[in-house]
Specification:
The protein is of the alpha+beta class. The chain has helices spanning 3-21, 63-69, 95-113, 122-132, 137-156, 160-163, 180-194, 206-220, 264-271, and strands at residues 166-168, 174-176, 229-234, 248-251, 257-262, 281-282. Helix content is 40%, strand content 8%.
Length: 292
């Protein structure tokens, strides 16, 4: 896919994340309880019952119901711990840490576009995330929004020759600038899962899952931290996993092959350390994988 299209997909994914985490405005708050965004897995399906008594009067919604209607389902009741302070699915990180990381990652990619190092150093990167993690949710979302807009603007200024330039990523990896938009898309999608607010690997867009499976298979091919030769078998995990996909080889270049079957989303969950392993089929134990 051309990098401009990947940039558009990253922008769309960011918009969905921001919309899912933004409380409804007063104008959008209807008298009946609002269903949470469907992609956050709200267990409540539709609007709530109308009040039949109390201060709201017969057939009218009281203040308590209006307050509940203005709160996303994951926000909990009034007085609950602010969502930004809740633990995420990443050890040691809160929701605020994950959102701050998404904003600083966008700035880091802007640095690469402009010919600068991605980060000023690991300590600086970690300190920036820690300093920003404690802000209110509204400030965190605005940070993600504005940092993502800066990255979009930077991508928009690149020429065909620019996209072919090679840059050094964190950890010594290298890539062309044309690979950065997809990397940003992956950051947004996977870290939205990490927020732990109802978005799971099964909710990831199928075209993203297929491409990320291929990308990770290439990254893990011949990796010294993987002792086994692995054959991924997407779509062969049993009923409901979709059509049979092409076999993907990764891991050690030789030796006995360990076949791992399952839905593409479950395989991606395993490769990225984000769950899904219970539905996988493998003879023996799943091979150990290095961290990303």
């Amino acid at each position: 896919m051309p990098p401009a299209q990947d940039a558009a997909r990253a922008r769309e994914a960011t918009g969905r994340l921001l919309a899912a985490l933004s409380p409804p405005s007063e104008e959008r708050s209807a008298p009946t309880a609002q269903a949470a965004p469907a992609d956050l897995g709200n267990p409540a399906a539709t609007g709530g019952a109308r009040s039949t008594g109390g201060r709201g009067g017969p057939g009218r919604t009281g203040a308590g119901e209006r307050d509940r209607a203005a709160r996303p389902w994951w926000a909990g009741p009034p007085g609950a711990e602010p969502v930004e302070r809740r633990p995420s699915l990443l050890p040691g990180w809160t929701v605020g840490h994950v959102l701050t990381h998404l904003a600083r990652n966008a700035d880091a990619l802007v640095n690469l576009v402009n010919g600068r190092p991605m980060y000023a150093g690991e300590t600086r990167r970690d300190d920036d995330i820690e300093r920003g993690a404690g802000r209110p949710l509204a400030a965190l979302l605005e940070d993600v929004r504005t940092a993502s807009a800066r990255l979009d603007a930077a991508f928009g200024e690149l020429t065909e020759a620019d996209w072919r330039r090679t840059v050094e990523l964190r950890g010594g990896l290298t890539d062309r600038l044309s690979g950065l938009p997809f990397r940003r898309w992956a950051e947004v999608e996977l870290h939205r899962v990490d927020l732990g607010l109802g978005y799971h690997v099964d909710d990831l867009p199928r075209d993203f899952v297929d491409r990320q499976l291929t990308a990770l298979a290439q990254r893990f091919a011949g990796h010294p931290g993987i002792a086994a030769a692995i054959e991924l078998r997407p779509g062969s995990g049993g009923a409901g996993t979709g059509s049979e996909g092409a076999l993907i080889r990764t891991g050690a270049p030789g030796g006995e092959v360990v076949a791992v079957s399952g839905s593409p989303a479950a395989l991606l969950g395993w490769l990225t350390g984000r769950g899904g392993t219970r539905s996988l089929r493998v003879r023996g134990s799943l091979p150990a994988l290095p961290p990303l």
